Fold this protein.
Amino acid sequence: MLPIHPIMVQSFAAIDGEIGTHNFNPLEYAIIRRVIHSTADFEFKELIYFSTDAIASGVAALRRGVPIVTDVSMVKQGITNLVAQTFNNPIISAVERVSVALPGKTRTETGLIECWREFPEAIYVIGNAPTALLALCNELNTSINPPLIIGAPVGFISVLESKTALANTPVNQIRIDGRKGGSPVAAAIVNALIVIAWDI
């Protein structure tokens, strides 16, 4: 098993004592507990959504060593250490892929589209840019779907629309509904999945 810092052990115990009743199975709970640990916000227990095969598909993909594509560098930085200790999956930040955006698009959106066309088998992790999540949803088709999309953009513009677009796809997904989310949340979900994949 991966080592856990004593402070994290204490924090998890505090969360266990405060979270109250819930319907998460043990693997789902391991993920939401890590999200709460990274945010100190118990509201995430009401906002997180797991599609039926999301965890199993994500775990299998991590073990296969598939690339992990993040929307922004902060998500990449948040998972690099644990990825390096375990499966050593390539980590690609979409915004770092391009220096110039396509007309009418952001750099993150442009980089995400490029990543999708090159790495359709990757795990996609969106923690900041709703435009990137919308672009990814628009690129999906019925013949090729990524093993997992983590949709957790944060903010006020296009955030709800991007999450609705993801919800309307058949892809395996872990999604944070509402306006909340962010890079630390997205990274926490990935790190929890890595621990699950490594330890079970």
Remarks:
- The chain has a mean pLDDT of 96.
- The longest helix spans residues 183-199.
- Strands lie at 48-50, 68-70, 91-93, 123-126, 148-151, 173-176.
- DSSP finds ten helices and six strands in the chain.
